[in-house]
Structure formats: C-alpha cells, structure tokens
Amino acid sequence: MADLIGSTFVFIGRSGCGKGTQAALLQKYCTEKGCDVVRLGTGDFARERAQKNTLTGKWIKSILDAGGFFPSWLAGALMLEMIEPRLTSHEQVLLLDGSPRRMHEAEVLDDFMAHLKRPSVYAIHLDISEDESRRRLLARGRGDDTEDAITSRLTWFKTQVEPVLSYYGDRLITVSGEGAIETIHDSIIASLSLPTTH
C-alpha cells in the first residue's frame, strides 16, 4: 500500500463520521507526495445534478428533498458519470466520498476499475457509534437532518452499508472516526503504511 500511484480509496461510515474531512486531508497528503489526485463527493455531485432543469435532475431533487435514497441503478450510474470524465490517467489517485453505499455500487465500481486496468479499490471505514452519528448530525443543523431522517440513515447503514464493509474483506481499513481530526488522519496514514507527515 505504500505506493499511492493509481490507487482508489472509498470513504465509508455512518452519517456525520467525517468522510469529506478525511478525504480532503488524504487528498492534501497525496498531493504533497507529488500525486495527481481526483477527489469526488457523491452527495455534492447529486446536489449539482439536482439543480439542472432535466427530468433526471428533477427526479434527483425530489429524492433529495424527501431525504430519500436513490435506486441502486441510479446511484451506480451517477457514480460512473461522476468518475468517467475526471479520471484521465492510470496514475491518478481517486478518492470517493459517499460511494459506494450498497453492494451493487461496490461491484459496479470494482468492475469499472478492472475495466480501466487500475489496482483494487480500498475502503476506509471511519467507525463512529450510532449515538455519535446522531449527535453530530443534530449539531450541524442542516435542514434535512431531522430526527426521522437521521434514524432512517442509521437504519440504512445497518442494512445496506454494513454488507459492503464485509464485501471489501481484506481491502477494508477501519479506523476510529471519533477523536481529533488530525489524530484520525494520522491513523489512516498509519493504516496505509505510508510515511507520517510530521
């Protein structure tokens, strides 16, 4: 794992675990090591698509506004649509925040990376408790972070995302997502057997 060239890392964890924050820190680390990094957030991409005045855009917006979940085929299609135009070299490091969240999406991503002849995908699981997830989501005060929506997301993680963690097997890197942001980042770097930044 010490060679970052062409690596793909996906960040997985309960809502509020800090996927975006840790993906940004790993992006910074890889960039400082001279890597060309592509970091993509599924949520940001979906929200961007929801602003478009198209049938798909309106459908995506209706799902987001209701705090719902995308059908598996749509989530997989959006993931590939997001990645394809931005991945222009076999040497780029790809960081995905928010995908995959279902078994089908993980399989689609693996198939796509194999098609591109890139190395295996590794999953970084930021492990936080349900109580901590609920606390963080309520604290950030976003409009879609209602009690019902949070409960739904936690149930989704248990039923849909936990099987994905098992799917990755020895490609899964689990670190605690609770604690200081820099400490979590250092744990990720250590788990990847990479040189420390200090």
Quick structural overview:
The protein is α/β, with parallel strands linked by helices.
How is this fold's topology laid out?
Layout: E1 8-12, H1 19-32, E2 37-41, H2 42-50, H3 55-65, H4 72-83, E3 93-97, H5 103-115, E4 121-127, H6 130-140, H7 147-168, E5 172-176, H8 181-191
Parallel strand pairs: 1-3, 1-4, 2-3, 4-5
Helix pairs in contact: 1-8, 2-3, 4-5, 6-7
Radius of gyration: 16 Å
CATH topology: Rossmann fold
- Individual helix count: 8
Q: What portion of residues is helical?
A: 40-55%
Order of helices and strands: EHEHHHEHEHHEH
Structurally, how many domains make up the residues?
1
Count the beta strands. 5
CATH-level-2 architecture: 3-Layer(aba) Sandwich
Overall shape: it is globular
Q: Could you state the CATH homologous superfamily?
A: P-loop containing nucleotide triphosphate hydrolases
Unreliable runs, pLDDT <50, ≥5 residues? none
CATH class, named Alpha Beta
Class based on secondary structure composition and strand pairing: alpha/beta
- Please report which band the strand proportion falls in: under 5%, 5-15%, 15-25%, 25-35%, 35-45% or over 45%: 5-15%
How can the largest sheet be summarized? 5 strands, parallel
Rounded to the nearest angstrom, the distance between the terminal CA atoms is 19 Å
**Sheet with the most strands: spatial strand order:** 2-3-1-4-5
Mean pLDDT over the full residue set: 91
